[in-house]
Amino acid sequence: MFTSTWRSLAPRPLNRVTLLGAMHDVQRGFLGQSSVFQFTLTCLLFEPPKREQAEKKPIATPPSPTAKGGTSQFVKEQYTVRCMGDEAYTEALNNTLEAGCIVRVIGRLKTFEVTEGGKKQLFPTILVEQGRWSHVALLHSLRRQRRDWQLQNALTETRNSK
Fold first, then answer.
1. Could you give all domains of the chain from N- to C-terminal order, each with its CATH number?
2. Rounded-to-integer distance, Cα 162 and Cα 100, Å
3. Are 42 and 76 in contact (CB under 8 A)?
4. Per-residue pLDDT at 40 exceeds 90
5. Which of 4, 13, 35, 132 could form a disulfide with 90 if both were Cys (CB 3.0 to 4.6 A apart)?
């Protein structure tokens, strides 16, 4: 009883991000001694109309994402998602997730500075570390419908084996 109370009172991370999108550019490898499963997540975000447009049209109708002419109010953003943990964790992710899947990612946002050709650029990266406060959940797959239960079982097995 004391441990369950202690876990509920444990400090949670302040920098926590939840994203939903389609994954592509899947890679797997090692970074130092930890195994890494990395992919790019493309999110479709709705951008509200600018103030001048809102004053002209008091009644707003949602625009079609494929509408021609005018300004599109949907914006695509891409994030690199880096899942880090032991080899069994990344193997479970690799066996279940594939390019084109729709996933929900809960992790920590970190900006990495990359220097290319004398230019310094900042890249947003979502870190998903094996543990309690971050995870990747499969929502939809074109080939494998609803294989989320297999992913969750594999991840709980790797968590309990430690």
1. 15-44+77-161 (2.40.50.140)
2. 31
3. yes
4. yes
5. 35
